UniProtKB/TrEMBL annotation:
This is Gamma-glutamylaminecyclotransferase. The keyword Transferase applies. Catalyzes the formation of 5-oxo-L-proline from L-gamma-glutamyl-L-epsilon-lysine. One of its GO terms (molecular function) is transferase activity. It is an enzyme of class 4 (lyase). Keywords: Lyase, Transferase. Gene3D superfamilies: Gamma-glutamyl cyclotransferase-like.
Length: 156
């Protein structure tokens, strides 16, 4: 199992969460909520209003999201879904645990409950330079006050 941090449309209550709970695509078990240890710019960009975390450590905000344990099948699905490695790149980042629901008596579970875990995160280094000038968000909600509702793939 791998640990993945999602900050955009794959979170609970967001337009693509359905993929996280579709066991035909693999297993994803919610572990808790967290935020990036380092600051990153989270922007909503492109004609489909897609959330992107730009891989520019030290700029922006501590981005909030959800931590999942996923199996190899779900990780492969997420790589394809996220257009990895062209649109997004999957990299390890340090995530501060805000609320932990993960069960287990392993040292790793105890450490996670106490602070910081490493998770795969889909961020991008391949973006138009003007995206750096977009507003930065600390958390994403498709129907947030930004007014930039995400356009589902099936509606494009």
């Amino acid at each position: 199992m791998a640990r993945v941090f999602v900050y955009g449309t794959l979170k609970k209550g967001q337009p693509n969460y359905k993929h996280m709970i579709n066991t035909a695509k693999g297993l994803a078990k919610f572990q808790g909520r967290g935020r990036t240890v380092e600051k990153y710019p989270l922007v909503i960009a492109g004609k489909y209003n897609i959330p992107y975390m730009l891989n520019i450590p030290g700029t922006g905000h501590h981005v909030a999201g959800e931590i999942y344990s996923v199996d190899d099948q779900m990780l492969q699905f997420l790589d394809e879904f996220e257009g990895c490695p062209d649109m997004y790149q999957r990299t390890l980042m340090r995530i501060e645990v805000v609320e932990w629901e993960g069960k287990g008596d392993t040292g790793e579970a105890r450490a996670a409950a106490e602070g910081i875990v490493e998770c795969f995160v889909y961020s991008t280094t391949t973006y138009p330079p003007e995206w750096v000038g977009l507003p930065y968000h600390d958390s994403y909600d498709s129907s947030g006050k930004h007014g930039l509702s995400y356009i589902l793939r099936e509606s494009r």
